[in-house]
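Q: Got one fold?
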Amino acid sequence: MISTWSTATGRTLRAVRGTSAPVTYGLIALCCLVFALGPASGLVPGHGSGDALLAAQRAYFRRWGVVPAELFAGAPEAVLTPATALFVHGSWVHLLGNMLFLFVFGAMTEERMGRVEFTLFYAGCGCLALLGYAAANAASEQSLVGASGAISAVLGAFLYLFPRARVTSLLPFLFFLPLRFPAWVVLPFWAALQWLAAGQASDGPGVAYLAHLVGFGLGFGYAWLRYGRQAGGPGGAVVGDERATRVKAAPAPVTEGEKQP
């Protein structure tokens, strides 16, 4: 059994290293593995069922998620939670929504930045986005989990680096007809939806839209400062064959950065 598991793991790692975006696919695999082993997935019998499972989930989110009140109170166990929260998700929908967007937009962004820079960019922007949300809600006792800030930062960087890349979008008010728009139309529309939702968000459990906005702004700002006129924006050079690039996605407000009770 152990030998079989080691062989499968080795093949997976070799496959990831052989791709053009190993960090992106590695992050997706890691997030899925962490979720599958955690109590939110419901796959591990050891976490119990019913009330016991709910209690295990609450304790899990509080231990590994960002709790603003504890973070700014200086609790030692809360120091690393802005990093650990990036790999914890609250539900299957939460996980799949985040991983879809990372899969669609992460690979091209990683190829443009390079593996090391993309890794630091993803982790740094993700932590800063969670800290930004926590600072705006410093007294909150709710835990914040998910790759919200990091993936939103990837979207922001993608917008600057590949503004003319065509994104296949499924819009609910158009009966989910697949339509293709350039990234400079789709991603600002997505950001506007997050802004509107953030203004209507309640203090209860739900989606931390502010973390999306902070991450998106950080990602766009980083790409602008780092790459300047190298990117394919107005007045810049087109990177690769961006005009022929087609990206498939469903840019509805994804359930990133869930606040847990």
Residues 94 and 255 are 5 Å apart (CA to CA). The chain has a mean pLDDT of 76.
